Amino acid sequence: MLALQPPEPLSIVMVGSEAAPYAKTGGLGDVLGALPRALGRLGHRVTVLLPRYRGISAGERLADASIPMGGRLVTAVYYVERLHERVEMIFVDCPEFFDRDGLYTVDGADYPDNPARFGFLSRAALELLAQRDEPTSVLHTHDWQAGLLPVYLRRLYHRHARLDAVPVVFTIHNLAYQGLADEGWLPALDLGPDVFLPGALDSLEYFGQVSFLKGGVGFSDALSTVSPRYAIEIQSPEYGCGFEGILRARAADLVGILNGIDYDEWDPRRDRFLPEPYDACDFTGKEAAKREVLRRFGLPSSKAAMARPLVGMISRLVDQKGFDLVEALAGRLTGLDASIVVLGNGEARYEDMWRALAGNAPERIAAHIGFDEARAHLIEGGADIFLMPSRYEPCGLNQMYSLRYGTVPVVRATGGLDDTVEDFDPISGRGNGFKFAEPTPEALLSALERALATYRNRAHWRRIQEAGMRGDYSWDASAQKYVELYRNARRHAPGNPDAVVRPE
């Protein structure tokens, strides 16, 4: 018998607007910082293209190109930094578009030329790939900022020998951000009225505006989002943000793949921010971390205080994260048999709420308004319970950090929170956390009180902690699923000589 040959490694090109540690405002930056490395460990070659924002000095000059944009030529200079023998970052330098104080906004408002800025990113990526000797196996684009890339590929580069059969995978990280612009932008983006047809799926028209997100959804070969539950939710009016009909039309091409977490950065056995290491076999270091959290936040760390459960929250203080539900319970939080620490910033009303609660109950509640990486790691390590009552959460990372650190999550059953947290059943002993379904203050309080009551049963509590710490939340598991998606997209890509024709 002939031995089966392993599948050929892929050459994957990702295009997005941020990647840790170079530029990051949220989960997208984490994904583009970690997923390429995980794919590289699987043997694939990965190139990530992103803007060379102000402050990024990494990379050696690779090439220059003149990019057509709205009847003029704009110069792009490419810089490359090789992170691994199979992973490289390419930064697209164009001071006109990317030498700014912020990535997307100034003084809280979007840059008015964002359509041109990120249209240029997509054109610059395709111009570079059209000249590369190495063929591209698959293009993976992320969120609205790269939504025009599949549009340009199909409209302007579809006859290019190096690009005509390359499939595009488009990932939606948060459907709420849709990249909307006025129809008048089309000429400046080198696009005509044929991509602005009302009612058409392969069109940028979205309620009379141009939507970069719709371009990504309508022109790509395969779609993904960041959790299986969110992939289902965004096809409903409640979570679809007006896109539910479009996404239902492409449901057969849409999958949900959970984000992973960086096991090098988030590991209680070697976390540089914890006073002592610990693992599921020895929780002594977790107790030391709890004591340090209480000390760092100015709360008592007596024997009685240490015996009380410590509830942690790390979050943007906004409605989406469920803080309106917490606000409705504010008067009852001080009566819980628990200490509470909060790290984050956001809407002034919620910042003021936590300041007031801390002032009214200085022995039990403390808040640090702002963000501090060391405090974030310390809370994950030292808290007993992590509260995450989001109204919607495409994936969520903190609940996975918590599970890895033996910190029991209490979450709303939505998006990635629902996919990663299994509600504890005291009869079977199964579960790694606590969930509530309805977005109401009463449901949140009930779930939190269940967790606080279970904390007193040390055998049950240890079982819940160990269940969470045994889970696999690594990028390696998620990367395998992306490889399956890439290979499937290649099989179905128009123009690919090996393509499988979809049945009508």
**Count of beta strands:** 20
Largest sheet properties: 9 strands, mixed
Distance between the termini: 38 Å
Q: Give the total of domains.
A: 2
How many helices? The count is 18
CATH homolog superfamily of the largest domain: Glycogen Phosphorylase B
Mass-distribution shape: elongated
CATH class of the largest domain: Alpha Beta
Bin the strand percentage. Answer: 15-25%
Helix content: 25-40%
The secondary structure category is: alpha/beta
Q: What would CATH call the architecture of the largest domain? A: 3-Layer(aba) Sandwich
The CATH topology label of the largest domain is Rossmann fold
- Ranges where pLDDT stays below 50 over 5 or more residues in a row are 497-504
Kindly state the mean pLDDT as a whole number?
Answer: 94
Radius of gyration: 24 Å
Strand order of the largest sheet: 3-4-5-2-1-8-9-13-14
General description of the model:
The chain has 504 residues and is α/β, with parallel strands linked by helices. The protein has 2 domains: 11-260 and 476-492, Glycogen Phosphorylase B (Rossmann fold, 3-Layer(aba) Sandwich), CATH 3.40.50; 284-472, Glycogen Phosphorylase B (Rossmann fold), CATH 3.40.50. Helix content is 35%, strand content 19%. It has 18 helices and 20 strands. It has helices at 27-41, 95-98, 114-131, 149-155, 212-219, 228-233, 244-249, 284-296, 303-307, 323-328, 330-333, 348-360, 373-382, 398-404, 415-420, 441-455, 458-470, 475-492, and strands at 11-15, 45-51, 60-69, 72-84, 87-93, 105-106, 109-110, 138-142, 168-172, 180-181, 205-206, 209-211, 222-225, 254-256, 310-314, 339-344, 365-369, 385-388, 408-412, 434-436. The protein has a 9-stranded mixed sheet with strand order 3-4-5-2-1-8-9-13-14, sandwiched between helices. A 6-stranded parallel sheet has the order 17-16-15-18-19-20, sandwiched between helices. The protein has a 3-stranded antiparallel sheet with strand order 10-12-11. α15 links the parallel β19 and β20 (434-436). α1 (27-41) crosses α18 (475-492) and α8 (284-296) crosses α13 (373-382). It is elongated and about 70 Å long. It starts with 10 loop residues before the first strand and ends in a 12-residue tail after the last helix. Residues 497-504 have low confidence and may be disordered.
